[in-house]
Structure to design on (125 residues):
């Protein structure tokens, strides 16, 4: 009685030998939000992944003193809106390309606060 190797296992073995030549993975970009008071004391530092998929949106809210900051991340833009002490302050918006160039500081932050967005951080989760 002859034993035949299934064609599927032969193809699998061939693809393993000729296919991947190392570990393949996607390295996600990150954005950091830093909120400091006017004296320069850092009140909050948060780091989040920037979504990879087109149309994806990540939204998180952080509280520092009496300022509530909501960060909305898409593949192309990051927008920070404010409530509490920052009510009435214009949203702070940067492109993800600006993060690659060292980040940005809000030109008109909520009164008594400094807001910065940067890249290259390591999320805790």
């Amino acid at each position: 009685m002859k034993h035949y190797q299934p064609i599927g296992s032969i193809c699998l073995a061939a693809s393993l030998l000729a296919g991947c030549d190392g570990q393949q993975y996607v390295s996600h970009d990150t954005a950091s939000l830093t909120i400091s008071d006017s004296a320069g004391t850092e009140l909050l530092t948060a780091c989040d992944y920037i979504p990879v998929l087109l149309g994806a949106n990540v939204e998180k809210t952080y509280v520092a003193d009496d300022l509530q900051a909501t960060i909305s991340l898409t593949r192309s833009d990051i927008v920070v809106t404010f409530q509490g002490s920052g009510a009435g302050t214009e949203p702070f918006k940067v492109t993800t390309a600006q993060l690659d160039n060292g980040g940005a500081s809000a030109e008109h932050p909520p009164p008594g606060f400094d807001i910065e967005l940067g890249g290259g951080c390591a999320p805790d989760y």
Q: What stands out?
A: The mean pLDDT is 84. The chain has one domain: 30-119. The helical segments are 7-18, 96-100.
